[in-house]
Amino acid sequence: MADKNRQELLGKKFLLKDLIQYQEGSIASRMIITQKSGSITLFSFDLDEGLSDHTAPFDAVVTVLEGECEVTVDGVPSRLTQGETIIFPAHIPHAVKAISRFKMVLTMIRESSED
Fold first, then answer.
1. Strand partners, 41
2. Residue 95 predicted with pLDDT over 50
3. Is the pLDDT of residue 20 over 90?
């Protein structure tokens, strides 16, 4: 998403789930905020789409906006539905799979180099 589109959101109310649409047979993403200190990204997953096990260098907070998914953190599966949140710890393998079409918001806060 271009900076211009992000600027159009500033100071206006909206529903996060309305800012991203489903794309048949794929995963779509839309970055809402990206800074050196962190980012907020929306994702939509079509049925049966997912992200295989991977790690990230920072904690990641995921909140389901609509639909249902299964997440796995360090080999332990959990189902999440609308409104539920999970934290993926830094450096721990995690995965996401759509049980139904679903949308989520991913918030990553990077560590400050001043810490």
1. 31, 106
2. yes
3. yes
Q: Would the pTM count as exceeding 0.70?
A: yes
Owner of token pair 């649409």 = 21
Does the structure show a pLDDT above 80 at 114? no
What's the full length of the chain, in residues?
115
Token pair 């609308």: residue: 82
Half-sphere exposure of 99 (CA within 13 A, CB side): 14
**Does pLDDT of 2 surpass 50?**
no
The sheet carrying 27-35 orders its strands as 27-35, 38-45, 102-109, 60-66, 85-88
For the chain, domains (ranges, CATH) are: 3-109 (2.60.120.10)
Spatial distance between the Cα atoms of 46 and 53, rounded to a whole number of angstroms: 18
pLDDT digit string, tens, across residues 63-83:
999 999 999 999 999 999 999
Helices (H) and strands (E) in the chain — how many of each? 1, 9
Rounded Cα gap, residues 102 and 2, in angstroms: 24
